[in-house]
């Protein structure tokens, strides 16, 4: 008696090998070989799962099982195709949740500086004991000039930084808030509040607003969030204090 799981599944579903052959457009002898242990092609396995209602690993116990997802997979909360797709209040909502640390890394962060709620929010957080660090591009820096050329906006990048500083520079007078300028090749912009962050990737020749944003939440000490934090610390160490 044929005891292969597929044979049992077909019998329990009242489906003959002839029925399967007709539905899958294969030779009945092929179906017979499947019911005695031959492994069907993936497309045929999917069809047999639908026909019998049995899970694939019940029909073919020897199928490789997918690896258990890494803990870091849980870090990704949501992915936005570009920054302009992020809800406008997502940034301030993230910052408002901070209880220990806020880190902002960007070339200009002009979109944050122009949000009327953000400077006041950062000031309030600092007064509540949250450490706030902001690293913007040096408007006179070489890499800032290069980025402007890549985006074909010339001195536009420097102008954006200077415009952002109009709103953000006064924060440097607030105890608990430090503002520095960097001149580095920036691969990502970061807005971090404790164990969560919004990471805006940079794409060559395209403005950051047109690049993807990933919302991450730390779940381990060796995932994506710690990697970005280590990068931030290295950049922060080389950035120069703002001359107020």
Give a topology summary:
Blueprint: H1 5-13, H2 17-24, H3 28-35, H4 42-52, H5 56-59, E1 76-80, H6 90-96, E2 101-105, H7 110-113, H8 117-127, E3 131-137, H9 142-150, H10 156-168, E4 177-182, E5 188-193, E6 196-201, E7 213-217, H11 224-238, E8 240-241
Parallel strand pairs: 2-3, 3-4
Antiparallel strand pairs: 1-7, 2-5, 4-8, 5-6, 6-7
Helix pairs in contact: 2-3
Summarize the structure in words.
Strand 5 (188-193) and strand 6 (196-201) form a beta hairpin. The protein has helices at residues 5-13, 17-24, 28-35, 42-52, 56-59, 90-96, 110-113, 117-127, 142-150, 156-168, 224-238; strands at 76-80, 101-105, 131-137, 177-182, 188-193, 196-201, 213-217, 240-241. An 8-stranded mixed sheet has the order 1-7-6-5-2-3-4-8, sandwiched between helices. It has 244 residues and is of the alpha+beta class. Mean pLDDT is 89; it is low at 68-72. Helix 2 crosses helix 3. 27% of the residues are buried. It has 11 helices and 8 strands. The chain has 2 domains: 5-59, 434 Repressor (Amino-terminal Domain) (Orthogonal Bundle); 71-241, Endonuclease Chain A (Endonuclease, Chain A, 2-Layer Sandwich). The longest helix has 15 residues, at 224-238.
Count of distinct structural domains: 2
> What is the average of the pLDDT values?
89
Structural class: alpha+beta
Order of helices and strands: HHHHHEHEHHEHHEEEEHE
CATH first level of the largest domain: Alpha Beta
Number of helices: 11
CATH superfamily placement of the largest domain: Endonuclease Chain A
What is the spatial order of strands in the main beta sheet? 1-7-6-5-2-3-4-8
């Amino acid at each position: 008696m044929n005891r292969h799981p597929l044979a049992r599944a077909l019998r329990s579903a009242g489906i003959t090998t002839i029925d399967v052959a007709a539905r899958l457009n294969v030779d009945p002898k092929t179906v017979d070989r499947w019911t005695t242990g031959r492994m069907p092609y993936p497309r045929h396995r999917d069809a047999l799962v639908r026909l019998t209602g049995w899970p694939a690993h019940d029909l073919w116990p020897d199928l490789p099982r997918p690896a258990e997802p890494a803990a870091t997979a849980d870090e990704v909360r949501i992915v936005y195709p570009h920054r302009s797709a992020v809800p406008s209040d997502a940034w301030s909502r993230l910052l408002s949740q901070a209880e220990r640390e806020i880190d902002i890394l960007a070339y200009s962060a002009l979109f944050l500086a122009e949000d009327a709620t953000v400077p006041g929010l950062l000031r309030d957080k600092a007064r509540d004991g949250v450490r706030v660090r902001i690293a913007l591009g040096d408007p006179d820096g070489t890499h800032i000039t290069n980025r402007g050329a890549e985006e074909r906006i010339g001195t536009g990048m420097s102008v954006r930084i200077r415009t952002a500083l109009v709103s953000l520079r006064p924060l440097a007078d607030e105890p608990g808030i430090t503002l520095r300028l960097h001149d580095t090749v920036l691969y990502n912009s970061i807005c971090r509040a404790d164990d969560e962050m919004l990471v805006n990737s940079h794409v060559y020749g395209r403005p950051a607003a047109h690049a993807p944003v990933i919302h991450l939440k730390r779940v381990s000490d060796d995932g994506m969030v710690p990697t970005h934090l280590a990068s931030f610390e290295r950049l922060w160490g080389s950035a120069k204090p703002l001359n107020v």
